[in-house]
Amino acid sequence: MAGVGVAGIAAAAGMAGCAPSEPLSSTAESGESGATTTVKHSWEVKPEPITDIAETVDAGRVVGAIAKGEDGVYRQYNAGKGVVLCTGDIGGNEEMVETFPPVSLRPDGIFYMPDGCNDALGHQMALWCGADFQHDPAAPMTHAVAGPGQVLSCQDIGWLMVNRDGRRFVDENTPAAIEAGVEEGVMWKADTLEDLAAQLGIKGTDTFLATVERYNTLCAEGHDRDFGKDDKWMKSSIVTPPFYATKVTAITMTIQFGLNCNDQLQVCDADDNPIEGLYAAGNTCGNFFACDYPLLTPGVSHGRDITFGRVLGEALAKGEKITFEEA
C-alpha cells in the first residue's frame, strides 16, 4: 500500500516525545513532486497547548506526514493513497485520560504493549487536521488481576470478593498456593473475620460481617441470587477458621476512545464529514466501543484491530471501498 503507514505517521508525531518549536517547513524535504502546504496546528485540553506538530494538507486533503530521521533532519513523505493512523490508545496521555475517562486514573496501573506507545500523539495529529473524537463515552478495558508479587487473585479461587467498604459487588466466578501466599506476605490469614477485616483495611467491618452472613445464606441455598455466580462455586460457606484473603488490583489494559471514524475507517470531523486522505485503525479508531468494554467475546479488541487494519490496507491498495457481507 502506498502511503506513510504506521511507522511514518508515528514518527511525524515525534516518537521521542518532543516536537520542534520552530515551523517544520524550514527543514522539510519533499519526497515526491506535488504542491503541498505545511500548516501548523495545536490542540488544547487545558489553556496551554500540549505540543505543536506540523501536518501536510493540500486543499483540505491529508497528503502525507513529516518525520524526523536519525540524522535529525525533518523530511516530508507524501502519501498518494492515504495516511493511516495506528498509534494506539490514549492511556499514556494522563491529560487526555483525566479529561475524557477520568475513572481510568483509579486503577492501580495501566499496562500497555509496547510500553510508551499510547501517548495519543496520533489522535492529536488528527485533531489538528480538523478531526474529532468519537461522540460516545470512552470504554476503558480494566480487569481485576493479581497484583505485583501476589500468587493469585480471588478470581482464580472463586472466593467471595468485597470492596474496601466490605460490600460484595461482583460475580467472582473464577486452586491455589494459599499458605505459600501467606508466608510471602501477599495473602492474609486470621482466626476471626473481624481480624481479617482489620488486616485488609476494610472500612466497614459491620458491613463486611453482614456481607459474609448473606453470602453464607446463598451458599446454603446453593444459588447466587445476588450476582448470579455459577452454582458450582456456591458450596463453601465462610464459617470455619482460619480465614484467608488476598487483595485484588485493577489494571487498565487499554482505553477504547478513538477518533470519529465512518464505516470506511475515514477520520471525520465533529459533523461526521470525512477528512480526505486520513484513516485510522486499531485503538486509534473510534465508534466501535462505548461506555464499557464487553467481556462476552474474548479478544474482541485485538480481533478488530487486526481485521480492520488488514481490510483497510487491502482496500486502499486496490483503490476500492470497504465492503461488508452479512454473516
Q: Give the terminus-to-terminus CA distance.
A: 28 Å
Helix content: 10-25%
Radius of gyration: 25 Å
Structural class computed from helices and strand pairing? alpha+beta
Taking pLDDT < 50 over at least 5 consecutive residues as the criterion, the unreliable ranges are 1-56, 147-155
β-strand percent reads 15-25%
CATH architecture of the largest domain: 3-Layer(bba) Sandwich
- What does the largest sheet look like? 4 strands, antiparallel
Question: What is the fold-level CATH name, i.e. the topology of the largest domain?
Answer: FAD/NAD(P)-binding domain
CATH superfamily of the largest domain: FAD/NAD(P)-binding domain
Strand order of the largest sheet: 1-2-3-4
* DSSP strand tally: 12
How many domains in all?
A: 2
Quaternary structure classification: single chain
Anisotropy-based shape:
elongated
Number of helices: 7
Order of SSEs, N→C? HEEEEEHEHEHEHHEEEEH
Q: What does the model show?
A:
The protein has 327 residues and is α+β, with helices and mostly antiparallel strands. The chain has two domains: 5-140 and 255-318, FAD/NAD(P)-binding domain, CATH 3.50.50; 147-247, Succinate dehydrogenase/fumarate reductase flavoprotein, catalytic domain (Flavocytochrome C3, Chain A, domain 1, Alpha-Beta Complex). 22% of the residues lie in helices and 19% in strands. The strands form four sheets. Strands 1-2-3-4 form a four-stranded antiparallel β-sheet. It has a three-stranded mixed β-sheet with strand order 5-12-11. A three-stranded mixed β-sheet has the order 6-10-7, with no helix packed on it. A hairpin with a 5-residue loop joins strand 3 and strand 4 (74-78). The longest helix has 19 residues, at 300-318.
